[in-house]
Automatic annotation (TrEMBL):
GO biological process: siderophore transmembrane transport
Topological category with respect to the lipid bilayer: Multi-pass membrane protein
Keyword Metal-binding tagged: no
A UniProt-annotated Pfam family: CarbopepD_reg_2
Source organism per UniProt: Chitinophaga silvatica
Superkingdom of source: Bacteria
GO molecular function: siderophore uptake transmembrane transporter activity
Name the record gives this protein: TonB-dependent receptor plug domain-containing protein
Keywords associated with the record: Cell outer membrane, Membrane, Signal, Transmembrane, Transmembrane beta strand, Transmembrane helix, Transport
Main location (coarse class): membrane
Length: 934
C-alpha cells in the first residue's frame, strides 16, 4: 500500500511539473533552432561588369574582418554562409575592377556591379620575395603576364609571349621547343635558367634544363607567370644564375566551369627567296579545362591540350668551313646538313693509287705537293631526314581538399608527350618523348610541405649528326680495310680518271662525288627509313644512336612563414632536399652499369624589414646548398633595399652573390654527337676516369688541324683540363619604378655582374691507346670532345633596360621596352654562348574593349633584334636582324560567353631566326574560338 501511495505522489508531482518541462524543452529547442538558422544564413549573389553587363567570374568575395569567403563561378554567381546575424559587410575584388564594399542587411540574392579600372601599376607578384607585394615595390626586376594578357595576346601559345618581355632572350629550336633566358648566355638548353610550375622545378631530370612548355601549364590553366631577371638562386636554388620563371596554375576553388579553346591556322606560306621546304600546312591547337568546386571543402580541375602542326625546319646550308658551297669545296659541311661531318684527307689514297699505278705519278705528285685535300661524305638536309611532324599532348589533373579553412591538401599529376627538335652539339629530334610530374602538398596559412617527382622517357630520340654518318657507313662504308673498297677509294678512282681527261681538280671532284654517291638512298625513301630506324633503334652504348634516358627527380620542400610569430619583420625560411637518379643506360651519362644518384641539400631564409616610417624596405636572403658531387657546400646571398620616394615611386637596389653547381650535363654528360666526337661534362670522373687524359693527353682541336697541315708535332698544343668546379656571379642592380598620374608606368634599371669560374666549352682531341702524334693524321684514330670547363679569367656582363606603359584611356594601352646586354673580358679559350644582341626593343599597342558593349578588342606587337653573333656546339655565325609583327582582332559573343579571334604571328611573313643553326620562322595565320575563357 505504501508503495502504491509513493507511486501516486510521483505521478502527481510529474503532472504538476510536466507543463513546465514542456515549455522549457520547447524553449531550448527553439533557441537551438534559432542558432541553426543563424548558422545556416546564406547570401547568394551575381556580379556583373557595370559597363558591358556581362558576368565577372573569379571575383573574390570576402566577409569583412574574417577569413570566410568565396569566388564567383563562371556564371558570376557566389554563395556565402554566415555565422552571425545581419548586417554583414562583404568585400568584392578582382584585378581590373574597382574594389567594392557592400553592406548586406538580410538574406536573399544580391545583384552587384563592378566598375572596370586600369590595372597599370596595380599588379602584384609573389616570386620576387616569396610573399605577395606590388610589382612596382619589388626589390628586383620582375616581369609579369596574367590571364587577361594571354587572352588579348596575338600569340596562339602563351609561352611565346615571353619573348616580348623586357630583357628576355629566346632560342626557338623548333615549334615545340623554345628556350628562354635573361641577361645574355642565351642558348638552346640553358641550364642556368630555372622554370618553376606550381612550386615544382620544371627541368628534365637528366638534361637539367627546362624543356619549354612540354609539361608546363596548358593554355587555359595559366593564372600568371613571373620572370625574375638575372641571378635568383638565393630563393630558388642552384642554376638560377640567368633568371627564374615562376608559373602559377588556376585554383579550381576560384576558377570554375568548363572552358574550351580551338585554334586552326596555317603556316609555311613561302615568300620571296625563302628556302622553306614545306608548302602551306595546317596548325591545330585544342584545349579544354574543367574546374569544379564540389562543395566548400573539395574542388578539382582537369586540363587537356593537343597541338599538331608541320614544324619549322632548319635549312641553313652555310659551309661551317667557310670555303664556299658544295660545288666549291670538296670538304663542304653545311650547318644543317647531316652526315657531311665525316671527312678525310685523301692524300693517303692518292699515294696508294700512285704506288699501284706508277704512271699516275705526273698527275698525283702535284696534288700531294699542294698539301692536304679534305673531302667530306655527302650529307642529308634536315627536311626529309628529320620528321616535320610537330605534336604535343598535355594532360593535368588536380584535386584540392580543405581539411580546415586554413589547411589544404593538394594532389596533382601532369603528363606530356610529343615530338620536338632542339639544338645543342647537334640537332636532337625528340620523338614520342614522355615527361611526367606528380605532386602531393599540404598548404596552410603560414607553411607548406610539398613533395613531387619528375620522370623522363626520351622515347625514340634521334641524334641527327651521328645517325646520318652511320646511315652513310651502312649503305657504303667510307673505307673497308678488308677489301680495300669503299666510298673514298671509289671517289679517288673517279677523281683521277676525270683529271686524266683534262678536268680541273674541282670539276673532277664534283664528278667523283656523283660516282661515289651511286646507290645513296634518297632521304625519305624506304631504304633510307629502314637504315635510319635500325640505327636509331640501337642504343649508343651498343654502337647505335638511340637516346635511352629514363632519369628521375625526387624533391621535398618545407617552408614556414614566421612573420606572425616574430612580428617585427617578414621572415620566411625553408628546407629542400632533391635527388637526381640519372638513368640513361650509357647514352647520356657513364651509367651503363647502374644509375647514378646525385643529391642536393638546401636551406634558405628571407627577411624583410620596413624602417624609416615604412619608407625604406630592407631585405636579406641566404641559402645553403650541398651537392654530393662536390666536397664543399656553397652559400648564396641576396641583400636589397627599396625606398619609397612617394606613394607610387620606388628606388630599388640589390646585390646577389649566387653560386651554381655544374649541372649534371656540365659535370657528367658523355654523348656521341658526331662520328668520333663527344659532348662531355668536365668532371674528373670523365676526364681521367673514362677518357684517361692523364695517360693520353688532350690537345686543342685547332692545333690538331694545324699539325695535319704541317705534320710538325711542335704544332700540337696541350690543353690542361681540371675537375670542374661550381661557378659564381656577383650581381649588382639599381632600378627605379614609378606610376605617374595613374596613367604612365615607367621602370628603368642598370646591372653589372662578375662571373668567377665561368663554365664554358672547349674543343679538344686525344688519341686513346697511344701517345704517337701521327695518330692525329688519321681521323679514325683520334676522338674529339666538346668539354665543359671553368675559365680562369673573370667574365663581366653589364647592361641596362627601360620600359614605359601608358594607359591611353578607353581601354587603349601602349607599351615599349628596351634592353641592352654586353659581355666584357670574354674568355677566348671558351665557347661562352653569350648569344644576345647588344640591344633589342619591343612595342605593344592594343585595346581590351571598344565598340558596342565593348565587344571588340585588338592587340599588335613588334619585336626588333639587330644582327648578332651566335655560338652553339655545332656551328657559329651571325643571326640576321629581324623585325617581327604579330597582331590579332577579337569579337565577343556576350550571350554565348564566347570569343572569336583572328590573328597572325610574323604577319609580314619575313622569315627570321633567333638562333644560328635553328630553323627560319615564317608567318602563321589563325582563327580561334574560345568558350568561357577568363
Amino acid at each position: 500500500m505504501e508503495g502504491l501511495l509513493a507511486n501516486c505522489n510521483i505521478a502527481v508531482m510529474l503532472a504538476k511539473i510536466y507543463p513546465f518541462m514542456l515549455r522549457t524543452t520547447t524553449t531550448i529547442i527553439l533557441i537551438f533552432l534559432s542558432f541553426g538558422v543563424y548558422a545556416q544564413q546564406v547570401i547568394t549573389g551575381n556580379i556583373r561588369n557595370s559597363v558591358t553587363k556581362e558576368v565577372v567570374p573569379a571575383v573574390s568575395i570576402l566577409i569583412k574582418d574574417t577569413q570566410l569567403g568565396d569566388y564567383t563561378n563562371d556564371q558570376g554567381n557566389f554563395r556565402l554562409t554566415i555565422r552571425k546575424g545581419f548586417p554583414v559587410t562583404i568585400i568584392c575584388s578582382s584585378l581590373g575592377f574597382e574594389t567594392k564594399e557592400i553592406v548586406i542587411t538580410g538574406p536573399g540574392p544580391q545583384r552587384i556591379e563592378l566598375l572596370p579600372v586600369s590595372v597599370l601599376g596595380k599588379e602584384v607578384v609573389v616570386s620576387a620575395s616569396r610573399f605577395v607585394q606590388k610589382k612596382i615595390e619589388s626589390p628586383v626586376t620582375i616581369e609579369r603576364i596574367g590571364t587577361k594578357d594571354i587572352i588579348n595576346s596575338p600569340q596562339p601559345n602563351y609561352y611565346n609571349m615571353i619573348q616580348g618581355l623586357k630583357g628576355v632572350d629566346v632560342t626557338t629550336s623548333s615549334m615545340m621547343f623554345t628556350t628562354i633566358t635573361t641577361r645574355g648566355f642565351n642558348t638552346s638548353g640553358n641550364t642556368n635558367f630555372t622554370q618553376i610550375v606550381d612550386g615544382m622545378d620544371n627541368q628534365a631530370p637528366g638534361l637539367n634544363f627546362p624543356i619549354g612548355a612540354v609539361i608546363g601549364l596548358t593554355e587555359l590553366d595559366v593564372d600568371n607567370l613571373e620572370v625574375l631577371s638575372g641571378a635568383s638562386s638565393a630563393l630558388y636554388g642552384s642554376r638560377g644564375l640567368n633568371g627564374t620563371m615562376v608559373m602559377t596554375g588556376k585554383d579550381p576553388f576560384k576558377y570554375q566551369g568548363l572552358s574550351a579553346q580551338i585554334t586552326q591556322g596555317v603556316n609555311h606560306i613561302k615568300k620571296g627567296k625563302s628556302n622553306d621546304p614545306l608548302g602551306p600546312s595546317p596548325y591545330y591547337d585544342w584545349t579544354v579545362r574543367w574546374g569544379k568546386k564540389v562543395n566548400d571543402k573539395f574542388a578539382f580541375k582537369i586540363n587537356v591540350q593537343y597541338t599538331q602542326a608541320k614544324d619549322w625546319m632548319a635549312s641553313d646550308t652555310t659551309n661551317t668551313r667557310g670555303l664556299g658551297g658544295p660545288l666549291q669545296d670538296p670538304g663542304y659541311n653545311g650547318v644543317n646538313i647531316y652526315g657531311s661531318n665525316t671527312n678525310a684527307d685523301i692524300n693517303p689514297f692518292l699515294e696508294g693509287a700512285m704506288a699501284q699505278v706508277p704512271e699516275l705519278a705526273p698527275l698525283i705528285e702535284p696534288l700531294l705537293a699542294e698539301g692536304r685535300h679534305v673531302v667530306a661524305r655527302t650529307g642529308y638536309p634536315e627536311y626529309g631526314y628529320l620528321s616535320s611532324d610537330a605534336q604535343l599532348f598535355k594532360a593535368n589533373a588536380e584535386f584540392r581538399y580543405k581539411i580546415k579553412p586554413t589547411l589544404e591538401a593538394i594532389v596533382s599529376g601532369t603528363y606530356g608527350q610529343g615530338n620536338a627538335v632542339y639544338s645543342n652539339d647537334t640537332r636532337y629530334a625528340l620523338t614520342r618523348f614522355h615527361l611526367g610530374q606528380y605532386r602531393a602538398e599540404l598548404k596552410a596559412q603560414h607553411w607548406f610541405l610539398r613533395a613531387y617527382t619528375s620522370r623522363e622517357n626520351s622515347g625514340r630520340t634521334i641524334i641527327a649528326g651521328p645517325t646520318a654518318q652511320l646511315i652513310n657507313e651502312a649503305w657504303k662504308p667510307s673505307y673497308d680495310g678488308r677489301t680495300g673498297d669503299g666510298w673514298y677509294p671509289q671517289y679517288v678512282g673517279a677523281l683521277l680518271e676525270s683529271m686524266s681527261t683534262g678536268d680541273s681538280y674541282l670539276d673532277a671532284s664534283n664528278k667523283a662525288r656523283v660516282f661515289a654517291d651511286q646507290g645513296m638512298p634518297a632521304a625519305g625513301s624506304p631504304q633510307f627509313l629502314r637504315l635510319k630506324d635500325s640505327i636509331a633503334g640501337i642504343p649508343t652504348s651498343q654502337g647505335g644512336t638511340l637516346f635511352t634516358d629514363r632519369s628521375r627527380l625526387f624533391n621535398t620542400e618545407l617552408q614556414y612563414n614566421f612573420t606572425h610569430l616574430v612580428h617585427f619583420a617578414e621572415l620566411i625560411a625553408g628546407l629542400n632536399y632533391r635527388l637526381y637518379r640519372l638513368d640513361s643506360k650509357g647514352s647520356l651519362f657513364p651509367d651503363i652499369k647502374s644509375p647514378i644518384d646525385v643529391a642536393e641539400y638546401s636551406a634558405y631564409a628571407h627577411l624583410t624589414k620596413k624602417v624609416a616610417h615604412d619608407k625604406l624596405s630592407l631585405a636579406a636572403a641566404f641559402r645553403y646548398d650541398k651537392n654530393t658531387l662536390f666536397a664543399k657546400p656553397r652559400v648564396t646571398t641576396r641583400v636589397s633595399a627599396v625606398f619609397e620616394v612617394n606613394k607610387e615611386s620606388f628606388i630599388r637596389f640589390s646585390y646577389q652573390n649566387a653560386y651554381s653547381y655544374p649541372s649534371n650535363i656540365q659535370a657528367l654528360q658523355s654523348t656521341l654527337v658526331d662520328y668520333n666526337t663527344y659532348a662531355s661534362g668536365g668532371s674528373d670522373r670523365l676526364l681521367n676516369g673514362v677518357y684517361q687524359f692523364d695517360k693520353y693527353p688532350a690537345y686543342t682541336v685547332q692545333s690538331v688541324d694545324s699539325f695535319q697541315r704541317t705534320q710538325n708535332p711542335a704544332d700540337l698544343k696541350l690543353f690542361q683540363l681540371n675537375d670542374i668546379k661550381p661557378q659564381s656571379v656577383d650581381a649588382f642592380e639599381l632600378g627605379y619604378s614609378s606610376l605617374i598620374g595613374g596613367k604612365v608606368l615607367i621602370d628603368v634599371l642598370g646591372y653589372y655582374s662578375t662571373w668567377k669560374n665561368f663554365i664554358g666549352y672547349v674543343n679538344v682531341a686525344n688519341s686513346p691507346g697511344t701517345t704517337d702524334p701521327t695518330a692525329f693524321l688519321d681521323r679514325s684514330q683520334y676522338i674529339q670532345y666538346n668539354i665543359a670547363y671553368n675559365g680562369a679569367e673573370k667574365v663581366n656582363t653589364y647592361g641596362y633596360a627601360a620600359s614605359v606603359g601608358v594607359d591611353l584611356s578607353h581601354h587603349f594601352m601602349g607599351k615599349v621596352n628596351f634592353s641592352s646586354d654586353f659581355l666584357k673580358n670574354r674568355n677566348n679559350s671558351q665557347v661562352n654562348n653569350f648569344n644576345t644582341p647588344n640591344y633589342k626593343f619591343n612595342v605593344e599597342f592594343g585595346n581590351t574593349g571598344f565598340g558596342n558593349k565593348e565587344r571588340f578588342s585588338f592587340n599588335t606587337t613588334m619585336r626588333f633584334r639587330p644582327a648578332y653573333f651566335y655560338q652553339i656546339g655545332f656551328a657559329s655565325g651571325t643571326v640576321p636582324a629581324s623585325a617581327v609583327i604579330d597582331a590579332q582582332v577579337s569579337y565577343r559573343l556576350l550571350q554565348a560567353h564566347s570569343t572569336i579571334k583572328l590573328g597572325g604571328t610574323n604577319i609580314t611573313n619575313t622569315y627570321y631566326r633567333n638562333g644560328f643553326g635553328s630553323p627560319a620562322i615564317g608567318g602563321m595565320y589563325y582563327i580561334t574560338y574560345a568558350y568561357n575563357v577568363f
